[in-house]
Amino acid sequence: MMKKVAIYLFFLIFSGHLFAQEPNSEVKEIKKVFIDNLLSKMTLQEKAGQLRLISVGGDLTLDKVLDKIEAGEIGGIFNTVVEPDLSQMQERALKSPNKIPLFFGFDIIHGHRTIFPINLGIASTWDRSAIAKAAEVSADEATSDGLNITWAPMVDITRDPRWGRVSEGFGEDPYLTSEVGRIFVEKMQKQSLADKKSLVTSVKHFALYGAVEAGREYNSTDMSERKMFQEYLVPYKAAIDAGSRAVMVSLVSVNGIPATGNHWLLTEVLRNQWHFDGVVVSDHGAIRELINHGVASDPKDAVRVAIKAGIDISMNDEYFLQFLPELVEEGAITEDEINQACRHVLELKYDMGLFSDPNRNLDPKLDIDTMFADNRLHREEARDVARRSIVLLKNENEILPLAKNKKIAVIGPLADSKRDILGSWSGAGRANLAVTPLEGIKNAVKNPESISYAFGANLSDDENLYRFLNLYGETTKFDNRPADKMIAEAVKIAKKADIVIAFVGEAEGMAHESSSRTDLSLQATQKQLIKAMKKTGKPLIIVLMNGRPLTLSEEYAQADAMLETWFLGTEGGNAIADVLFGNYNPSGKLPMSFPYNVGQIPVYYSHLNTGRPRGTENMGKYTTSYFDSPNEPLFPFGFGLSYTNFAMDFSLSSTKMNRDGEIIVTVNVENTGNREGMQTVQLYLQDVTASVSRPVKELIGFDNITLKPHTKGQVKFVIKYDMLKFWNNKMQYVAEPGKFNVYIGSDSTTQDKQTFTLLD
Ligand code: NOJ
Question: Which residue from 284, 426, 512 has its CB within 8 A of the most atoms of ligand 1, so it is best to mutate?
Fold first, then answer.
């Protein structure tokens, strides 16, 4: 049999047939025999080695890592993006006892060499082809650097902007997040993992990382099972259904049990209910953290808890190698449990084609200059996605777009910052290749002399903030000049200009892992700068660069126009200029609600109605409300203006639906303004009466339409039975007969409604 398998494998590999199509049962059998055979030759130590993901750094020098690889103690490497080093590592892996190749991982979160907008920005496009473009280019660049796997997409639902990692996700909504996540998985992994351009995805952080209490990083989460299955778990499931071959586990505890040690989550839900057959990777150092969580007494115990729960691979941890063999010998875990985890890893490597081509895409001689060369970048794609990510929040008297012959004062601490515009998680990008807003504006106008610039203010005068930002090397410079002098300089150039554009917000390091905030307003220094600009009487355009919803009532009132640009990546400056000067008509929509104040958090559109919906009379007394704040956010989910206007009306194909039927929603859209523009038509649903309270509205579809001035078009959606399902009072996933409201609009506040009944 073995001989037959070997000959057949040889034939398949060299004929290029292997992995080309969905594996048939013979191919599956061949894979099984291959892996069984390999496992039978591996020692316990080597098996434990396959379950370890290591990065070079600190005491672990490259030389040390190479020796460990050759000894069979490491299964995968992450955080190295230098091809000659990767080649060297692979060479040593092929000298290990069973010659098992390594795989190479990296955080490719929003681009690799070319940096795209942060994920909150990518989600703001609400544009499936733009999202696909960002994912595809990222995978192409990463795989051509020899990488095989990324720790993305992050699909944690985020409703608390205090949490810095909202910047890495796709916002507050399960449907939008699922759609973006699905596209990332499909476009990164491609049809077959054996495709040389395929980058394996690891959907993260399973689960509920985005729901940390009080938005405080690494804090606990606690949530009803209904809310989990109805909302928070939906995007992970969507990514797994799209084929994501890896899952990264959340660092936090879920209903009292840390995710890394949570058998219910990792085995009962993920493996048994969802039939996930890929690799489960712990997050950085998460095994050891089980001791701090208080569910393991010591490192050995932590390894036992993690492997029993369903972790396959440990990330940057000595303990798996140290204790797994011992735990088997002591009978605390079985060898079968290790075999099972190891099989997941070997299957992944097999499907990636690494056994037949371990050096895929690796160039052992690639030099650093070529690696970072500008001509490797995908600037055009990055610019297009970036401008689609921009959200126009205000445009009084149609002050935007600007004419190109105006005298413009460009002001602010973020106007010329190359590092900040890349955003967090841009490790393989290079700031010197990024275009700042100032550069972009100068590139766009006919006469760059008409553009003046002043730094204006530090991001903050809080020394602690700078210490925090620059802890691991200076990323944010503090200008030591007196604050009033900097403001005076800005005022001077503002007075000579026709228009002031102020670039304010956050440093990229403020919207990252481990960067929770309790105050979401602009720092005092920036507020003073804006006040001074306003006082000049010049039209004021506020361009925000930030990684989370901020509280912006004051600035909203001061600005004549306001743009949310997030951190737009390598081509950010050019993209901003495209929008400012009307080369691109803004089309972005917010993927997260922007609160008026921190006290409103969490504020999200798809809340339940409550027994006492907010009243409009008698100050709303004895209805669900605050006496010092509106319930609604300053900017709602789905909101974003355009330089043109759109009118919409819609109809349903029927007012009744059978179980096997469907309703077609036809939306007529008219561009009533004078510019071409793109509108995102949003479809929301409300299940009016059910066995459990249902949200006031839930997004169930969206589509884009681009229309020339004064033209009309149509968008159609199909509502099917499955889209009406939810977790009922018995925790069954069903649709219940009754009345449904359908809403169509350009944001989540729409009241434009039609109704149909689902028949019994
Ligand atoms: C920790 C982060 O939580 C995770 O998102 C990331 O992928 C890993 N570190 C690896 O860098």
Answer: 284
Which is nearest to 195 in space by CA: 246, 236, 144?
A: 144
**Pair type for strands 253-254 and 257-258:** antiparallel
Burial of 597 (0-12, 13-18, 19+ CB in 10 A): middle
Closest CA to 281 of 249, 317, 257: 249
Phi, psi torsion values for 648, nearest 5 degrees: -135, 145
Decide which of 544, 570, 598 is a domain's last residue.
598
454 and 588 housed in the same domain: yes
Of 542, 576, 598, the residue that ends a domain is 598
Does residue 637 form part of some domain?
no
pLDDT band at 21 (very low <50, low <70, confident <90, very high): very low
Q: What are phi and psi of 740, to 5 degrees?
A: -125, 135
Summarised one tens digit per residue, pLDDT across range 235-251 is 999 999 999 999 999 99
Neighbour count for residue 196 (Cβ, 10 Å): 13
Q: Is 122 a member of any domain?
A: yes
State in Å: Cα 653 to ligand 1 middle: 47
pLDDT in tens, 460-505: 999 999 999 999 999 999 999 999 999 999 999 999 999 999 999 9
Q: How many domains would you assign to the chain?
A: 3
What burial class does residue 271 get, using C-beta atoms within 10 Å of its C-beta: 0-12 exposed, 13-18 middle, 19+ buried? middle
**Domain range for residue 398?**
384-598
Clarify whether 283 is annotated catalytic: yes
pTM over 0.70: yes
Is 360 within a domain? no
